[in-house]
What we know:
The chain is α/β, with parallel strands linked by helices. It has 9 helices and 19 strands. It has 3 domains: 6-78 and 101-165 and 272-317, FAD/NAD(P)-binding domain, CATH 3.50.50.60; 173-269, Alpha-Beta Plaits; 329-399, no CATH class. The longest helix has 17 residues, at 301-317. It has helices spanning 13-23, 105-117, 238-252, 301-317, 329-344, 349-359, 362-369, 375-383, 387-399, and strands spanning 6-9, 43-47, 59-65, 74-78, 80-84, 90-93, 98-104, 122-126, 128-135, 138-144, 150-155, 157-160, 173-184, 196-201, 211-220, 223-232, 259-271, 278-280, 283-285. It is globular, with a radius of gyration of 22 Å. The protein binds flavin-adenine dinucleotide (FAD).
Amino acid sequence: MRESDVIIVGAGAAGLSLAHHLTIPDPVLTGTDALGGREAPRVTLVEAPEGPLRSPERTWCFWEDGRGEFEDAVVRSWERLRVRGPDGTVWESRPHPWRYKMIRSKGFEALVDARLAASPLVNRVTATVDVVRNVDDGVHVLATAPDGRRLNLGARWAYDSRPLRRLPPARTTLLQHFRGWFVRTGARHRPFDVDVACLMDFRTPQPAHGLSFGYLLPLGPDRALVEYTEFSAAPLSTKAYEAALHHYTGSVLGLGPLDVYATEQGVIPMTDARFPRKIGDRVFRIGTAGGATRPATGYTFAAVQRQSRGIAAAYRSGAVPEPPPPHSVRSRAMDAVMLRALDSGRVDGADFFAGLFGRVPMERLLRFLDGRTSVREDLTIGFRTPVLPMLRSVADLAFRGLREAPR
Ligand SMILES: Cc1cc2nc3c(=O)[nH]c(=O)nc-3n(C[C@H](O)[C@H](O)[C@H](O)COP(=O)(O)OP(=O)(O)OC[C@H]3O[C@@H](n4cnc5c(N)ncnc54)[C@H](O)[C@@H]3O)c2cc1C
């Protein structure tokens, strides 16, 4: 029996966003039916129970022009962005019309859940999905409920956001790995400029391979999220991240005694691998598992929104509701060259990124990272990078085969 039109596996960034875009009227659409003309689908959203499969709470940042659909979940936003070079040089700009926004995953879930709860179209199921498979004219999803019951769900289409067990083979695979502290300095010491987010501060000691930087999001004059991040081959131990954070907050930022009231840690793939989005006639992958993570930066949230809108628009038009490519071929090609140059050591990572922010207007870089720049603008960005090492990396890529990602 078919209980719904669409099954979404996983209620993280991608699953919740897709459920939202498929069933909540789109404010941009006009006409009599704000859902776009075609009847909206009945959606079953399956999320793993609390436990090891559930993704831990996290912070999602992205840039946006004006008020967005998830504005009520935005906990903080910044008008000005800063990058600091290894020698302390500061580049700061107000990339009008963009604001850099922060959402906590729990807040996002609460907002979207409240909206979905008001829709008769959405059924939320808590279960561990074991199998997602195509059948003749639809899909079957086999899952296990928390009480051990086996569930057999049917639909016309399935979207799977479960994290992949292993990254696909690639010419270059790096990891963006980090640990962050939510800190308080005490009411008498107010060191943070609440209007400025620092995206990259390269005054951290640089690793032998890849690069490292500090990331600082002020949450108040005496509160901030401070992260230590590396782009390199393997994550560090928690002890090593802690030491790096002590050094960054103490010796580099000079913050003095701190109260660390929460932490966040993560690993995001940076790879030129191809992530298949179609894994059956009616089964698709979405989110990080479907390649939504931008290889050069790890940013995913904005691409997930674009992709969810694309799927919803295809569904409403009656076309096959396949996820559109999250990033253009050109963006992926440029990212592949950058990753190769970084991994091979042909460019110095800290100088490379600091130089890019120093030479390209921030507003253009943000549009570039969203895939909204023209070919000409992309070429000018390419010419602001160390051209010879980049050309050597292009040649290297041409002869480099795919390699299994490290475990
Ligand atoms: C700590 C951290 C911070 C990040 N910060 C940013 C940021 O600032 N900006 C940005 O753009 N990107 C950021 N990212 C990258 C990316 O946006 C996130 O990883 C994002 O959560 C990816 O969304 P997703 O839906 O693909 O995966 P997830 O959000 O991880 O969702 C996958 C879902 O699948 C569920 N699941 C897993 N297995 C099963 C199963 N067997 N059955 C049922 N459900 C299952 C999980 O419970 C989870 O809810 C960050 C990543 C991390 C780890």
